[in-house]
Amino acid sequence: MEIDEWAIGQRIAQYRQRRGLTQDELAGLVGISLSMMKKIEAGTRPVTRFAQLVLFAQVLRVSDLRDLTGVPMPLMPDGRRGHPSAEAVRTAVLERGHGVEPVGMERLRRLAGRAWSTWQEPSTFRYDAVGQYLTEVISLAQAQVNASAGEERREALALASSVYQLARTWTKRVGEYDLSWVVADRAVAYALDADDPDLAGAASWNLAMILSAQGKTEQARSVVRKAMEQLVPLLSDDSAPARLAVFGGLHLLGATEAAREDDAGDAWGLLDRAAAIAARVGETNYHRMVFGPTNVALHRISTAIELGRTREALDLIERTDARNAASVERCLTFHIDAARCFARRDNPVAAVHMMGRVLRDSPDELRYNPIARETLRQLSVRSTAAIRPDLEPLLEAASLTP
């Protein structure tokens, strides 16, 4: 059975009325504008984000997502809700490096760099490899902070902040939102202790990312605004590219969050300002944030999708080459976004082609990304003889075969 995205709004309205909530009250509880709430229930704006769907279910006291979607929606294959390495990573975070012998800053930098590179490059076992790296590098980074003093401690804090930022993105992607919140908060605290304003901006970006994933759009926008305000006094005509890139990256996330609150004017304004910054700094990967003209173009697409402008998003997709993105994660998001748009426009051949690129670059994404999995379910329902040979390997990789 296929999800009818427009019928979700009708079901939300029914459950809202059963709970005795007004549209304004429900909008406040899930962190969206009243205008967007009305559009969702009217069917003129679909609920396109899985995290937002979960938030609606929680607020409306719906225990099974099928009550809103009309179809079963397990988060992970075989009923699992996370990655096999998640508990080991959680243990490393909670133990805070106690009883671990430091290995020195040079080796720690190599390990952290290797872990980040593995996450940002195409790999068949990307999720597994980074999960294993994190169990080691988190303990070692924390142990180095515990054992250091003075300038070396500031260096250790900065490196540990970067490690926790990687932990944030990995834990978010495997569905460990509570742990992702912990490591994101720790990344910000360590960046502030290291007295590094650029790193603090990057850490705040990470914190806003997990707030966004949990459907807390208003809080995410607040974190982004404050981080930008703290950087503004430090900017000048000769500002270092790294600082400008962080500032630009915050603009991109701000645009995404504005779109999720149906604030199109602010979203496009932030994107335009980000584009001007990107033109100055070019393609960058400072603090592993990935910022530049390509990422701005990719965010224009995701913003159009968030605003419900599928046709506009497809026009942008047709004109965008994602190969210059410094991280495979952004490319994967682009391919999944494109597949969703093509599927909505009844072009399953193009949708399967885009999902095939995800399989090529990171098969694990099909197992752990709920949006990718739901897109594959929809394509499976529409399967024809023409696309079935290319679709079946995708369904197998996502553990969606019967």
Outline the structure in words:
The chain is mainly alpha-helical. The chain has four domains: 5-69, lambda repressor-like DNA-binding domains (434 Repressor (Amino-terminal Domain)); 80-195, no CATH class; 214-325; 327-402, no CATH class. Helices cover 71% and strands 0% of the residues. It contains 21 helices and no strands. The protein has helices spanning 5-19, 23-30, 34-42, 50-59, 66-69, 86-95, 105-120, 126-147, 150-173, 177-193, 197-213, 217-231, 241-260, 264-281, 293-306, 310-318, 328-344, 348-361, 364-368, 370-381, 388-397. Helix 20 (370-381) packs antiparallel against helix 21. The two termini are 14 Å apart. Mean pLDDT is 89; it is low at 73-81.
Rough outline: globular
The secondary-structure class comes to: mainly alpha
Describe the biggest sheet?
A: none
Order of helices and strands: HHHHHHHHHHHHHHHHHHHHH
The N- and C-terminal alpha carbons lie at a distance of 14 Å
Radius of gyration: 21 Å
Number of domains in the coordinates?
4
Tally the beta strands.
Answer: 0
